[in-house]
Amino acid sequence: MRIEKISPLLAVLPLLAFAATGFPQAADPDALKKIVRDRCLPNYEQGKPPAPCVALDVSRGIDKGYAILKDRNGATQYLLITTGVITGMEDPQLLESSSPNYFADSWAARKFVEERAGKSLPRDVISLAINSSFGRTQNQYHIHVDCVRPDVRQALKDLEAEIGDGWSTLKTPFNDHFYKIRKIKGETLTPDPFKLVAEQGEDVRGAMGRQTIVVVGASFKDGTPGFYVLSDSVNIGAFNRASGEELQDHACQLADR
């Protein structure tokens, strides 16, 4: 994992913040990588189901493939985990033109969330999230696929008219900080949200490890389908580790409505 240069004082602050909030630290930051590389892939290569993963796709090659794994946390949460060795948001290979759109693959994996929920879910109930290098416990690129928080879903509905096709700052804060946001129109997630976030400017593109990305499905008021893409940056002074997973609801309350 790339380590960004910060002052000794700033290096201590996030540790104090995590200790104060009780943020859990992973016993093994390579646990997801080991599950995929040592268990799911070998089973698949032997012609068996890719257990404990529920799906595995290496049609683009192992370096650009992915596995889907049920997360231990939550009734409906799944993870898309790359089969290639990609540490996370900061990995430069993700900015290459040949890098797959893993968010599109994650959107397709929403079917597993629906299976666990026992019903088909409206697209605006589903969210995808990847945490910054400061806000994760695993050093293998993975996207959380689960329901969005009810209050986030409602806020996006209420603010639709203020959200355009370009980046702006959301006027409603979530967890006391303000996300940047833009719309994408279309049934499928054709633009890569990762590359869209990088297009915000060189200050963002050069510090992707400090960014978090959340994608929420949308059904706009004019009847067209689409998505909201949200991003945020680490702000150590504000105790914001840029963990977009905070916008998800791992209890999936919306599935009961």
Can you describe this structure?
The protein has one domain: HIT family, subunit A, CATH 3.30.428. Helix content is 25%, strand content 19%. The protein is built from seven helices and nine strands. It has a nine-stranded antiparallel β-sheet with strand order 1-2-3-5-4-8-9-7-6, sandwiched between helices.
Which helices and strands occur, and which strands form pairs?
Blueprint: H1 8-21, H2 31-45, E1 55-57, E2 66-70, E3 78-82, H3 102-108, H4 110-117, E4 126-130, E5 142-147, H5 150-158, E6 168-169, E7 180-185, H6 193-198, H7 202-205, E8 211-219, E9 225-233
Antiparallel strand pairs: 1-2, 2-3, 3-5, 4-5, 4-8, 6-7, 7-9, 8-9
**Which structural class matches the secondary elements?**
alpha+beta
CATH architecture: 2-Layer Sandwich
User: How many strands, which pairing sense, and closed or not: the largest β-sheet?
Assistant: 9 strands, antiparallel
Domain module tally? 1
Give the strand content.
15-25%
CATH H-level superfamily title: HIT family -  CDH-like
Query: What's the CATH class, please?
Result: Alpha Beta
Outline type: globular
SSE series: HHEEEHHEEHEEHHEE
Percent helix range: 10-25%
Q: In terms of per-residue confidence, which ranges show pLDDT below 50 for 5 or more consecutive residues?
A: 1-25
Radius of gyration: 18 Å
Mean pLDDT: 90
Widest beta sheet: strand line-up: 1-2-3-5-4-8-9-7-6
Give the termini separation.
41 Å
CATH-derived topology = HIT family, subunit A
Per DSSP E runs of 2 or more residues, the count of β-strands stands at: 9
Per DSSP, the total helix count is: 7
